[in-house]
């Protein structure tokens, strides 16, 4: 397992004895962690947590919001030196692992997916040495965490001095991964979240895409409004919606990918999501 030396006992911070094929045992206090398919599972996942299906991700795959996330994470990887320590929190099916081939990547999730390196609820406990990672990634995660402030606080303590926390969050997006979808954040909330963890805001970009919103609106009309008609009226309604969709598709040839702007400079209130880079200041290093 990569970077396993950074994983320590969450009770006493001692190293684990890893010779047992079924469990890691702390050499200091005998705290035991079971192994599932070779990976340590520190906490049970909630009963309402359903495993995600494998979805092929990439720079040119998925929704425009997902593509913007992918490009943002690619930029983060490109700016890191080879061998940098990366923790992907809420890694799920390991979508971003392929981006960090030059770095020492560790994928974590509350659910023990085959693609992750360990399973743990970071709000309950942290099996890591503090100040261990150059980059911590929270991509489309904190909206699914009810106690999100505790999670961000924990992640900030895991950063090395000068390290960065990358956060992407949706804003105008439908409920997803129900029932664990709890929050939407404004840029003001995100700025305060950084400040309360003594992190500097280097990037807080707003992703807007009116045409994507138009698509969602048309889809909602088709699914929930047209169905209320019957007979000839329903046929006419379907034809009108289809025409609107065709006209909307014609607009996408010029600006279908949306736009990314510094949130403070963006006056469009219809933001699909935010992409953030928060930095842990070097001057806080007690050394």
Q: Which secondary structure elements does this structure contain, and how are they paired or packed?
A:
Elements: E1 16-17, E2 23-26, E3 32-36, E4 39-40, H1 64-79, E5 85-89, E6 104-109, E7 118-119, E8 133-139, H2 148-158, E9 159-170, H3 187-196, E10 200-208, H4 210-225, H5 231-255, E11 259-262, E12 271-279
Parallel strand pairs: 5-6, 5-8, 6-7, 8-9
Antiparallel strand pairs: 1-2, 2-3, 3-4, 9-12, 10-11, 10-12
Helix pairs in contact: 4-5
Task: Describe it.
- The chain has 287 residues and is of the alpha/beta class.
- It has 2 domains: 181 residues, Rossmann fold, CATH 3.40.50.150; 45 residues.
- It contains 5 helices and 12 strands.
- The protein is globular and about 75 Å long.
- The chain starts with 15 loop residues before the first strand and ends in an 8-residue tail after the last strand.
- The mean pLDDT is 89.
- Overall mean confidence score, pLDDT: 89
Q: Going across the major beta sheet, what is the strand order? A: 7-6-5-8-9-12-10-11
Question: Which CATH architecture of the largest domain is right?
Answer: 3-Layer(aba) Sandwich
What's the helical proportion of residues?
25-40%
* Multimerization state: single chain
Radius of gyration: 22 Å
Domains, number? 2
Brief digest:
With 287 residues, this protein is α/β, with parallel strands linked by helices.
Question: Which descriptors apply to this entry?
Answer:
single chain; 287 residues; alpha/beta; Rossmann fold; 2 domains; eight-stranded mixed sheet; four-stranded antiparallel sheet; 12 strands; globular
């Amino acid at each position: 397992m990569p970077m396993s030396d950074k994983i320590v006992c969450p009770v006493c911070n001692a190293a684990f004895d890893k010779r047992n094929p079924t469990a890691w045992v702390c050499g200091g206090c005998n705290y035991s962690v079971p192994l599932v398919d070779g990976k340590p599972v520190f906490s049970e996942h909630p009963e309402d947590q359903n495993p995600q299906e494998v979805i092929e991700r990439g720079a040119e795959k998925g929704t425009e919001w997902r593509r913007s996330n992918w490009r943002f994470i690619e930029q983060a990887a490109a700016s890191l030196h080879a061998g940098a320590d990366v923790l992907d929190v809420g890694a799920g099916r390991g979508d971003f692992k392929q981006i960090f081939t030059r770095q020492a990547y560790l994928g974590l999730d509350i659910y023990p997916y085959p693609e992750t390196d360990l399973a743990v609820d970071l709000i309950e406990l942290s099996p890591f040495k503090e100040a261990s990672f150059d980059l911590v990634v929270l991509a489309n995660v904190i909206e699914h965490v009810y106690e999100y402030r505790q999670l961000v606080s924990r992640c900030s303590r895991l950063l090395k001095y000068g390290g960065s926390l990358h956060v992407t969050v949706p804003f105008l997006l439908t409920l997803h991964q129900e029932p664990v979808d709890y929050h939407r954040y404004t840029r003001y909330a995100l700025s305060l979240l950084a400040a309360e963890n003594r992190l500097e805001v280097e990037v807080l970009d707003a992703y807007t895409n009116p045409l994507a919103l138009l698509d969602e609106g048309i889809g909602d009309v088709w699914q929930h409004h047209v169905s209320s008609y019957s007979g000839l009226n329903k046929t006419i309604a379907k034809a009108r919606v289809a025409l609107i969709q065709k006209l909307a598709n014609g607009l996408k040839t010029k600006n279908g990918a949306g736009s990314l702007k510094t949130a403070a400079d963006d006056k469009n209130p219809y933001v699909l999501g935010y992409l953030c880079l928060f930095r842990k200041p070097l001057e806080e290093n007690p050394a």
